[in-house]
């Protein structure tokens, strides 16, 4: 059959709204084999690596997938928990907390699933589950505050690819970004203030975002601007002067130039410039993951202290903090506008006049 059919449909089924919460994805296990599978899927995405396909295929299969999986597996072993990968656990918990809030408000009318762009649970599996529960309107919330083609647009590609193979498409809404959304800035600001209340302030607040190749910016990707806007709004919220905070970019991959200034080089240089105390926050990561726990929490701490720094603190991602969930809730509510029927919700009535073909069972 060319198209995937909706499973479990019956005419008495209630029409529902689905919220699909997504993040990047993570390997199934912290070992070489799982890393190879994960990295192959991730790094084959042309939204992530914009290099001519034939050339990239040779580099990826000839070099990267032979070297990187073992190295990355070691790094993942250092952050892995009894429940699994931190990114997966946080995303699952965030979706659950959001689902609880939405069900308090809308009962069974709104259902939530979470998915990963690469790895499991896949976006297609989650859309299958939503459709089987009667979802006819779908809101996708990629947990990337700043729009980037490598992440946000790639998530859209995965939804579109699923839709290409599906018979009965739900109505679709897609949240592009929320880098300047006041409740998100407030949640970030309050989490930093709570850290200050407990530990005091350091000389400088470093706002570190995942990098991308500089070429993507010059080709028109708004990511760099959105990161800077988040930083400016956050600094305004906290009442910071220009010399009290910095925006930097981390997690470089490959040899070409990425967005500058680089987080690692900045931290290595700061002690010589008289900055011996820093606090680092990662406002582009909605959940702690390898890139924050290991790279910011450990690797960059070492660089800073070895360069003569005296005090280094990483301020955790918002994860499932109540203020974060509330910010996501209000973001979702804004995008559900015109869709929710909360008071007179009666999905059965909506389908009561459906005509049943005698020869079909659906
Ligand atoms: C190869 C190029 C990469 C681009 C471009 C890129 C952009 C990008 N990534 C995130 C968020 C995350 N990336 C994570 C891990 C990760 N990223 C890359 C490469 C690129 N990312 C790799 C190869 C890896 C895997 C880890 C490794 O082998 O070093 C993660 C963490 C995943 C986890 O399991 O914990 C996140 C989150 C953003 C937001 C972004 C562009 C804006
Ligand atoms: Fe990445
Ligand atoms: Fe910019």
Automatic annotation (TrEMBL):
Q: Which SUPFAM superfamilies match?
A: Chelatase
Offer one Pfam family short name for this entry: Ferrochelatase
Protein's UniProt keywords contain Repressor:
no
Which compartment or compartments is the protein found in? Cytoplasm
Top EC category? lyase
Q: Does the keyword Iron apply?
A: yes
Q: What is its main location?
A: cytoplasm
UniProt keyword terms in alphabetical order: Cytoplasm, Heme biosynthesis, Iron, Lyase, Metal-binding, Porphyrin biosynthesis
Query: Which EC number(s) are documented for this chain?
Result: 4.98.1.1
Query: What pathway is this protein said to act in by its record?
Result: Porphyrin-containing compound metabolism; protoheme biosynthesis; protoheme from protoporphyrin-IX: step 1/1
- Show the GO MF annotations: lyase activity
Q: Which reaction does it catalyse?
A: heme b + 2 H(+) = protoporphyrin IX + Fe(2+); Fe-coproporphyrin III + 2 H(+) = coproporphyrin III + Fe(2+)
Q: Which residues bind Fe(2+)?
A: 210, 291
Function per UniProt = Catalyzes the ferrous insertion into protoporphyrin IX.
Q: Which PANTHER family match?
A: FERROCHELATASE (PTHR11108), FERROCHELATASE, MITOCHONDRIAL (PTHR11108:SF1)
Q: Which family does it belong to?
A: Belongs to the ferrochelatase family.
Q: Which NCBIfam families match?
A: hemH
- Write down what this protein is called: Ferrochelatase
Which species is this record about? Fluctibacter halophilus
Q: Which gene encodes it?
A: hemH
């Amino acid at each position: 059959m060319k198209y995937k059919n909706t499973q479990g449909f019956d005419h008495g089924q209630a029409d529902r709204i689905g919220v699909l919460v997504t993040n990047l994805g993570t390997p199934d296990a912290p070992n070489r084999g799982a890393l190879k599978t994960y990295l192959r899927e991730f790094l084959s995405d042309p939204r992530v690596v914009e290099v001519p396909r034939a050339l990239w295929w040779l580099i990826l299969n000839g070099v990267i997938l032979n070297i990187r999986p073992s190295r990355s597996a070691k790094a993942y072993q250092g952050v892995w928990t009894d429940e699994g990968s931190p990114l997966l656990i946080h995303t699952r918990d965030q979706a659950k907390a959001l689902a609880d809030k939405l069900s308090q408000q809308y009962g069974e009318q709104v259902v939530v699933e979470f998915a990963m762009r690469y790895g499991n649970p896949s976006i297609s599996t989650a859309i299958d589950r939503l459709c089987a529960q009667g979802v006819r309107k779908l809101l996708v919330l990629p947990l990337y505050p700043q729009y980037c083609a490598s992440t946000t647009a790639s998530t859209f590609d995965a939804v579109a690819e699923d839709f290409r193979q599906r018979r009965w498409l739900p109505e679709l809404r897609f949240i592009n970004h929320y880098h300047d959304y006041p409740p998100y800035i407030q949640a970030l600001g309050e989490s930093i203030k709570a850290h200050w209340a407990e530990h005091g302030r350091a000389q400088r607040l470093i706002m570190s975002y995942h990098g991308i190749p500089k070429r993507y910016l010059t080709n028109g990707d708004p990511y760099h601007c959105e990161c800077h806007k988040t930083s400016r709004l956050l600094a305004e919220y906290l009442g910071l002067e220009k010399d009290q905070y910095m925006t930097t970019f981390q997690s470089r991959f490959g040899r070409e130039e990425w967005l500058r200034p680089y987080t690692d080089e900045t931290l290595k240089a700061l002690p010589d410039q008289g900055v011996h105390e820093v606090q680092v926050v990662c406002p582009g990561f909605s959940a702690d993951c390898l890139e924050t726990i290991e790279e910011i929490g450990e690797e960059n701490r070492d660089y800073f202290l070895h360069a003569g720094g005296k005090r280094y603190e990483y301020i955790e991602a918002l994860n499932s903090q109540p203020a974060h969930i509330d910010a996501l809730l209000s973001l979702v509510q804004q995008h559900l506008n015109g869709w929710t029927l909360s008071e007179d919700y009666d999905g059965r009535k909506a389908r009561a006049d459906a005509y049943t073909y005698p020869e079909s069972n659906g």
